[in-house]
């Protein structure tokens, strides 16, 4: 009677301790996001963790076989071990895609849409151009520049034929 | 896995080989661009200036401009 009383006390203590330890375990255990993650990256060829975290029974057996001599492993087993450790091979992770077509197409579409906006603006928002853009004004302006011999060596006046009074061919 | 054994790839000196090749290409391209610029731009411009000033008569030029009426100080 006394022994069982003592035992139940000890048992209670043991149970409550183990409950505390269990509770403590779930509080102290690291969250998944704070541990190293697996990545397929060219510049990180050997990640800290393997790709497959929870092995099936057959995979566990394979890992045991891996501890023995590797020449006893078949080709398929070697590939299976590789796929446990890594998600994509280098060739797979580096494969090209057709994304560039979407990007270029999308960019061209939006540039075209911008052109429509600008056309609308020219028609409905902007005022008239200054008179210095008129054809007659520009002609008089160019004639004056040629009279002044602006850039006579390689520039504007060098392209004008002063004898024949016309642009050089 | 493929039944035939692939040849062992280059394991070392990859960066050195890349740098060597890029150096060679960069050298050739730089020389080429410099030569092209020298002949097609610089020498052509020097010749244009020399040809212009060889038989240049500044007073004749001034008279033409004066007759065209661009000056305010002299008509």
UniProtKB/TrEMBL annotation, chain A:
GO terms for cellular component: cytosol; mitochondrial inner membrane; mitochondrial intermembrane space; nucleoplasm; respiratory chain complex IV. InterPro entries: Cyt_c_oxidase_su4, Cyt_c_oxidase_su4_fam, Cyt_c_oxidase_su4_sf. Pfam families: COX4 (PF02936). It comes from the Eukaryota. The keyword Transmembrane applies. It is found in: Mitochondrion inner membrane. CDD domains: Cyt_c_Oxidase_IV. The chain crosses the membrane at residues 102-120. Pathway: Energy metabolism; oxidative phosphorylation. Keywords: Acetylation, Membrane, Mitochondrion, Mitochondrion inner membrane, Transmembrane, Transmembrane helix. One of its GO terms (biological process) is mitochondrial electron transport, cytochrome c to oxygen. It is a single-pass membrane protein. Belongs to the cytochrome c oxidase IV family. Component of the cytochrome c oxidase (complex IV, CIV), a multisubunit enzyme composed of 14 subunits. Component of the cytochrome c oxidase, the last enzyme in the mitochondrial electron transport chain which drives oxidative phosphorylation. This is Cytochrome c oxidase subunit 4. The lineage of its organism: Eukaryota, Metazoa, Chordata, Craniata, Vertebrata. The gene is COX4I1.
């Amino acid at each position: 009677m006394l022994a069982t009383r003592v035992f139940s006390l000890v048992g209670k203590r043991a149970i409550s301790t183990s409950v505390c330890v269990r509770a403590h375990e779930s509080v102290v255990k690291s969250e998944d996001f704070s541990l190293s993650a697996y990545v397929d990256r060219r510049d990180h060829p050997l990640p800290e963790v393997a790709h497959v975290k929870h092995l099936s029974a057959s995979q566990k057996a394979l890992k045991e076989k891996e501890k023995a001599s590797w020449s006893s492993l078949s080709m398929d087993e070697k590939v299976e071990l590789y796929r446990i450790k890594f998600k994509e091979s280098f060739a797979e992770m580096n494969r090209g895609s057709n994304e560039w077509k979407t990007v270029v197409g999308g960019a061209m579409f939006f540039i075209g849409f911008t052109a429509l906006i600008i056309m609308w603006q020219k028609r409905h928002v902007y005022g008239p151009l200054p008179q210095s853009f008129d054809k007659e004004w520009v002609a008089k302006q160019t004639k004056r520049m040629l009279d002044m011999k602006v850039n006579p060596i390689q520039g504007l006046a060098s392209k004008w034929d002063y004898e024949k009074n016309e642009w050089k061919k | 896995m493929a039944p035939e054994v692939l040849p062992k790839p280059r394991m070392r000196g990859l960066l050195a080989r890349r740098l060597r090749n890029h150096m060679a290409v960069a050298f050739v391209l730089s020389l080429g661009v410099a030569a092209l610029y020298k002949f097609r731009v610089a020498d052509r411009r020097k010749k244009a200036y020399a040809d212009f000033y060889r038989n240049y008569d500044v007073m004749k030029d001034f008279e033409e401009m004066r007759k065209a009426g661009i000056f305010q100080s002299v008509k």
